[in-house]
Structures are given as structure tokens and as C-alpha cells.
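User:
Hi there, any thoughts?
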Amino acid sequence: MKKSINYFLLGALTVGLFAFVKKDNNVDTGFKNSFTETLKNAKAYTLEVAEKMPAEDYTFKPHDSVRTFGEQIAHIGMSSKLLNTMFIKGEQVDFDPAEGAKLEKITGASKEDCIKMINANFDEVIATIEAMSDTDLQGTFVFGFASNKPELTKEQGFLFIRDHVTHHRAQAITYLRIKGHDAPQYRPF
């Protein structure tokens, strides 16, 4: 009888320990929460940059070979949404670079349209990560824009979006300074 009680207690303890240490794939381990805050900050910082440039200077570009200020801001919004839709959400997108450039030119001519786009598209990317679990973030996709077409995790996809935003926002900040406008204070995260 004593042996049966010991086996029962050992079994109950084992089951209890497994229940205690079981990983819940829907529990965030840190990346999602911290990166959501990073995206919210990136949105606010990008909006500050967009607001600093007067509407009449949205068509300014320092050289014929580059985008205008407005096209840079529109590109940030459009590409963030495109990358999120294609790679993170895994949805089929008919992507035509020439049509994208045309839309950037149209949207980029309007400060108001650019600001609306930044708000809407950042909100969509933020909502996407907020709805994901750790398991979802470890899902993979093939990054077709790179010549070697690497397989990346969706977490890496979000990091790429952030890097891409940073790249183009920095260009827009340079345009602000060339035109003699104050740039917003740098925000690291």
C-alpha cells in the first residue's frame, strides 16, 4: 500500500511539474512586446519627420536620381505595408515596381496623403505583430527581394521592416537639413 501511495504521489508530482513548465506558444517571451513599442516609436518619429517638412517642400529632391522628400515618406508607408502583407502575413500580392513608383509619386506630392498613409500602414504592421504568437514569429518565408532568396523568420521580417524604415527616414532627415529645416530629435527605440 505504501509503495502505491509513493507511486501515486510521484506520478502526481510529475504531472504537476509538466503542467507547470509547459510552454504556452501564445505567451510572449519579449520580442513581441518590445518590438511593438519599437514600431510605435518608429511611427511617431517618422510622423515627426513628415510634419517638419512644409507642404511646399514635399516635391524637393537634392538630385535628379533620387526620390523627392514626399516620395521617401510615401515609400516608407507603402513598402512597410507591402513587406508586412507579402512576407509576414503571407498573402499574395501583385507587385509591379513601376506602378509602385507611380503611386509613390502621386502620394508623395501631398503632405496630407503621406501622413495618412504613414498612420494607416504603421497601424496595420503594429496590429499584425500584436496578433501573433511566439510560434507565429518563428514561422518562415522566402525573402524574394534578395538575390540569394534566403529563408527568414517572421521576426527577422519585422526587423527588416524596421531597418528599411530607418534607411529611408534618414534620407528624409537629410532632405530636411538641406532645405534648412530643423530635424526632430533622434529616438533610438
About this structure: The chain has one domain: 24-178. Helices lie at 2-21, 31-52, 69-88, 97-108, 111-130, 134-137, 154-178.
